[in-house]
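Chain A, query sequence.
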Amino acid sequence: MTEHKDAIIKAAWKLLEEKGLDGLTRKALSDALFISEIKVQKLCPTPLSILLLLWSDVCSKTSAINKEGLSTHDILFESVMNHLDTLSPYKAAVQRFVNELSFAPCWLMDLKPYCTEWSRRRLNEAEIDVSGIMGSFKIEIFNLFCLYILKTWADDNTLDQSLTLAAIDQGLKKLEEWQSVIKGKLPF
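Chain A, predicted structure.
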């Protein structure tokens, strides 16, 4: 099945861009690739699994960060930017996806566990404690921050991505402020 994986990924990005979430189906992929729907189903048994295949591919192609000498802020900044850089060839598809998410809250609920795990990994990478109730709260806040950044990036038409860079920097500063305030006020 891996023989069709790259072709399915490429076709899925194109379908997402052209037809949106509703057009991202196994049938549409099999028609676009002239392969049987069963071959697509082996790799992507559900519509959600198609999106997860795309995200998994992006994550596998995102370059690792050399954390040496970087602050927590810089590690998170670089991590988010590296993922956005990897998404750049698919920006039109991501724009459509992000715009359609506001009309499809069920997709957000389906994607939430995967976003939570991704956020947990980014925060762990930056050596931020994500254990306990406060850790769960940090992950949820980081999820919302990343969704905001994804929307900002999708709408950012500046050549140097200055709106996105500023949003990431400002957002991370706000998260740091929030964490220091909460840490001082709560006993755990």
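The CA atoms of residues 72 and 86 lie 21 Å apart. The mean pLDDT is 90.
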